From TrEMBL:
<feature type="repeat" description="FG-GAP">
    <location>
        <begin position="272"/>
        <end position="333"/>
    </location>
</feature>
<keyword id="KW-0677">Repeat</keyword>
<dbReference type="InterPro" id="IPR013519">
    <property type="entry name" value="Int_alpha_beta-p"/>
</dbReference>
<dbReference type="GO" id="GO:0005615">
    <property type="term" value="C:extracellular space"/>
</dbReference>
<keyword id="KW-0325">Glycoprotein</keyword>
<protein>
    <submittedName>
        <fullName>Glycosylphosphatidylinositol specific phospholipase D1</fullName>
    </submittedName>
</protein>
<dbReference type="InterPro" id="IPR013517">
    <property type="entry name" value="FG-GAP"/>
</dbReference>
<keyword id="KW-0378">Hydrolase</keyword>
<dbReference type="GO" id="GO:0031012">
    <property type="term" value="C:extracellular matrix"/>
</dbReference>
<feature type="repeat" description="FG-GAP">
    <location>
        <begin position="335"/>
        <end position="395"/>
    </location>
</feature>
<dbReference type="GO" id="GO:0004621">
    <property type="term" value="F:glycosylphosphatidylinositol phospholipase D activity"/>
</dbReference>
<dbReference type="InterPro" id="IPR028994">
    <property type="entry name" value="Integrin_alpha_N"/>
</dbReference>
<feature type="repeat" description="FG-GAP">
    <location>
        <begin position="203"/>
        <end position="264"/>
    </location>
</feature>
<dbReference type="InterPro" id="IPR001028">
    <property type="entry name" value="Gprt_PLipase_D"/>
</dbReference>
<keyword id="KW-0732">Signal</keyword>
<dbReference type="Pfam" id="PF01839">
    <property type="entry name" value="FG-GAP"/>
</dbReference>
Length: 658
C-alpha cells in the first residue's frame, strides 16, 4: 500500500516513479505512464515481465544490475534514500501505519480519520483537513476471463480470480549450471597470478562501527579541530540511526584526534565516541550533512547538522539545519542553539552544507544546499547562505526567508545544490554549485532526439553577487557531471595552478586492450579544470575509471597530505570490482585513489599506461611522503555507509595510516 502511493504519486506529488521519469526517462514516462485506458493484455504482459525479472534477481542480481543502471542511475542509486518513496521513506511510513492500525485495534476507529490513501490515516480527535483526494490515474479493471486457459509459452494460468505465473524448474537448474561453468572458464583465462601493487593499502589501522541496523554510519563526514587542542577531530553522521519507537532520527558522532592521530582500535561509536548528538524528529535523518564554522563569531568552532527529511510525518519534507555552539573547554552544546527551517514543502533543507566566506569578511559563513526544493518549479533546487556574526547567539530560530544570500536552479529536476564547494582566488571567493541532473535540450521536449538527460552542470558564483560567474556543462548523456566537487592547488607539469575537480561518476569511459577498443559503461570520470582565468575554466586533466559501473569520481577531495603546499587529489570508486568475475557474480569491493599534488602530465592522464591495458588509474597513484597529514599523523578515514559487517547497512569507518 505504501509503495503504491509513494511510487505512483497517488494523492501526493513527485513520487519515486515521477522523479525517475523526469531525471532519466522523461520521454518514456510521459508517453506511457498515466494512460486512462490500459488493456488487460498489457497488464498481464508487463506483470509477467516483472515476475521474470524478480526471478532473475533472485538467481543472478549482479547480472541484472548493469541493465538497470544503464537505463536509470536514479533507480539503482536512489532506491533506498530518495526522500519520497525510497525504501527508507517507505519503511518509516510502514511503521507509522502499523502504529495507527494497532491504535485502532485497541481503541476503535471513532477518533480516526480513514481516507482511501493510507498515508493520510490519522488517529487523533481532530481530523486532518489538508488531505486532498486525488483519483488514481489508472482505472480498476475486472478480469472477465472465466474459463481456465493455460498458456504454455509463457506458463501463465488464467483463473476467475486473476492470473498465476510459474517458471519451469529446468530454467533455474540450467541457469545455475551455466553460471558455474562460465565462472570456471573465466577463472581459467585469468589463472595468471595477480600481483598486487606496492601502492595498495588494504589493511586499515582501525575501524569504527555501529550495531544499529540501517544507521548508515559515514553518510556525512568532516574533520575539524572542535576542542581546539591543535589536532583535527572526526565528525561523522549516521542519519538512519533509530531507537525503539523513533525511526531514522539520526545521530552525529565526534571522535577527538590526538598527537598520535585517531584512536587506533576497532570500536563501537555508541560506546566510545567522545560526544554524541541525536536528532529528535521522526525520520528527520539528522546527520545527513555537516559543516564546521564559527557561526556566532565568538572564536570557538560551531557545528551545523542537516536533517533534510524533517516534516516527513506530514508529507512536507521541509527539512531543518541545527547549529550547535561550541564552548571553550566544554565541547559542543548538547542541544541545538539555532534551528533553521524552510517554509516550502519538499524543501529538504540541509541536504548539503558548506562553510565558506560569502560576505568577504574572511570568516566562514553557512551555505545550505536544497537540491529537491521547488526553486520556482519542481526540484530545481536552491542554495542559501547565512552570514556569521556575533549576535547569532540570541537567535534561536531562523528560516530560509532570513537568508542573506540566495540563488536558484534553472530547470525542473536539475537538483541544483546537490554538491557544494568553495575556492579562494586572490581577492575573491568562488562558490561552486553542482547540478548533476541538469538536462541539455532545446525547448526540453522529451520526445526530441536532441535531449540529453542528466548531463550535469557546475556553476560558479562570486558572492555576495548573485550573478553567475561561470558555468561548465557536461556533454554525456546520463554522465551526471557535478555529483561531487573539490578545489585546491596542484602543480601540473611544473606550473602551480588553482584547480576545480568535478566528479562525473556515471560517464562512460573508453577502454583499450592492445589495439582493441571498447566502452566501459558508467566507469566514471574525474575532470580537473584550471581556474587561472576564473571566469573561463579550461579542462586540464581527465582521470578515468577502469571498471564498468565502478562510479569513479563518486566523491572527490583535494587536501594537502604531505605539507608541501600542494593538495593531493582523492577520488573514490565505490563500486569498483577487483576483477571481471566480480562484475558477473557480485562482490563489489570499492577503491580509493590518492594522486600526488605534483603531477607530471595533463590531458588524458589515465590513458597513458605502462601496460597494454587502459585506462590505468593505478599507474598514476602516489603515496604522501610526510608523516604529518590531515588528521594527526596522516590518517585517512574512508566510509562504507552500506557495510553490513556489524549490522545490516549499519555502516563502518576505516582509518588508514599512510
Amino acid at each position: 500500500m505504501v509503495a503504491d502511493v509513494s511510487w505512483h504519486s497517488l494523492g501526493i506529488d513527485q513520487g519515486f516513479l515521477k522523479a525517475m521519469g523526469e531525471v532519466n526517462l522523461a520521454a518514456i514516462y510521459q508517453e506511457f505512464y498515466g494512460r486512462e485506458i490500459i488493456t488487460e493484455g498489457t497488464i498481464i504482459d508487463c506483470t509477467y515481465l516483472l515476475f521474470l525479472e524478480l526471478h532473475g534477481e533472485r538467481l543472478a542480481v549482479s547480472k541484472l544490475f548493469p541493465t538497470y543502471a544503464s537505463k536509470s542511475p536514479f533507480l539503482v542509486e536512489r532506491f533506498h534514500d530518495y526522500f519520497l518513496g525510497g525504501v527508507d521513506d517507505m519503511a518509516f511510513w510502514t511503521n507509522n501505519i502499523f502504529e495507527q492500525t494497532s491504535h485502532m485495534l485497541e481503541n476503535g476507529t471513532s477518533g480516526c480519520f480513514l481516507p482511501e490513501n493510507p498515508l493520510f490515516i490519522k488517529c487523533t480527535r481532530e481530523r486532518k483537513n489538508n488531505y486532498i483526494s486525488k483519483q488514481s490515474k489508472n482505472e480498476h479493471y475486472k478480469n472477465a476471463t472465466s474459463s481456465l486457459i493455460v498458456t504454455i509459452k509463457k506458463n501463465i494460468k488464467y483463473t476467475e480470480r486473476g492470473v498465476h505465473f510459474n517458471i519451469q524448474s529446468w530454467a533455474t537448474n540450467s541457469l545455475h549450471f551455466i553460471n558455474q561453468a562460465f565462472a570456471t572458464n573465466v577463472w581459467r583465462v585469468l589463472a595468471v597470478a595477480h600481483k598486487q601493487s606496492s601502492k595498495h593499502i588494504s589493511k586499515p589501522a582501525a575501524s569504527y562501527f555501529l550495531t544499529s541496523p540501517y544507521a548508515r554510519l559515514g553518510w556525512a563526514m568532516i574533520s575539524a579541530d572542535l576542542n581546539q587542542d591543535g589536532y583535527e577531530d572526526l565528525v561523522v553522521g549516521a542519519p538512519g540511526y533509530s531507537t525503539l519507537g523513533r525511526v531514522q532520527i539520526g545521530r552525529v558522532y565526534i571522535v577527538y584526534g590526538k598527537q598520535s592521530g585517531l584512536p587506533p582500535e576497532d570500536m563501537d561509536l555508541d560506546e566510545k565516541a567522545d560526544q554524541v548528538l541525536e536528532g529528535h524528529q521522526p525520520s528527520g535523518r539528522f546527520g545527513s550533512a555537516l559543516a564546521v564554522l564559527d557561526f556566532n563569531d565568538d572564536g570557538v568552532p560551531d557545528l551545523a547538522v542537516g536533517a533534510p527529511s524533517v516534516g516527513s510525518q506530514f508529507l512536507t519534507y521541509k527539512g531543518a539545519v541545527y547549529v550547535y555552539f561550541g564552548a571553550e573547554g566544554r565541547g559542543l552544546a548538547s542541544q541545538p542553539n539555532i534551528t533553521i527551517t524552510c517554509q516550502y514543502s519538499y524543501c529538504n533543507l540541509g541536504w548539503s552544507l558548506l562553510a565558506a566566506d560569502v560576505d568577504e569578511d574572511r570568516s566562514a559563513d553557512l551555505v545550505v544546499g536544497c537540491p529537491y526544493a521547488p526553486g520556482g518549479g519542481q526540484q530545481r533546487g536552491f542554495v542559501v547562505a547565512f552570514y556569521s556574526y556575533f549576535n547569532r547567539s540570541g537567535q534561536g530560530l531562523l528560516s530560509v526567508e532570513d537568508a542573506n544570500w540566495m540563488v536558484k536552479g534553472e530547470k525542473n529536476y536539475a537538483w541544483f545544490g546537490f554538491s557544494l564547494d568553495s575556492c579562494q582566488l586572490e581577492n575573491i571567493t568562488l562558490l561552486l554549485i553542482g547540478s548533476p541532473t541538469w538536462k541539455s535540450c532545446v525547448g526540453c521536449n522529451p520526445f526530441s532526439s536532441d535531449v540529453r538527460q542528466s548531463v550535469g552542470k557546475v556553476y560558479g558564483y562570486n558572492p555576495p553577487s548573485t550573478e553567475r560567474w561561470f558555468a561548465v556543462t557536461g556533454d554525456k548523456d546520463m554522465g551526471r557531471m557535478g555529483m561531487s566537487l573539490a578545489s585546491g592547488v596542484v602543480s601540473v607539469a611544473g606550473i602551480t595552478r588553482t584547480v576545480l575537480v568535478v566528479g562525473a561518476p556515471t560517464t562512460d569511459s573508453l577502454s583499450r586492450i592492445s589495439f582493441i577498443s571498447s566502452v566501459l559503461r558508467q566507469a566514471g570520470l574525474a575532470l580537473m579544470y584550471d581556474l587561472t582565468d576564473s571566469a573561463k575554466p579550461s579542462l586540464l586533466s581527465i582521470f578515468s575509471g577502469d571498471r564498468r559501473f565502478s562510479r569513479f569520481g563518486g566523491d572527490v577531495y583535494l587536501s594537502d597530505l604531505d605539507n608541501d603546499g600542494l593538495d593531493e587529489m582523492i577520488v573514490t570508486s565505490p563500486l569498483r570490482t577487483n576483477d571481471i568475475t566480480t562484475v558477473l557474480f557480485g562482490g563489489t569491493a570499492g577503491r580509493v585513489y590518492i594522486y600526488s599534488g605534483n603531477q607530471t602530465t595533463s590531458g588524458n592522464v589515465t590513458g597513458h599506461c605502462k601496460s597494454w591495458i587502459s585506462p590505468c588509474p593505478e599507474d598514476w597513484v602516489r603515496k604522501p611522503k610526510s608523516d604529518i597529514g590531515r588528521l594527526g599523523h596522516n590518517d585517512i578515514v574512508v566510509a562504507a555507509e552500506r557495510s553490513s559487517v556489524k549490522a545490516r547497512l549499519g555502516g563502518r569507518l576505516f582509518v588508514y595510516s599512510l
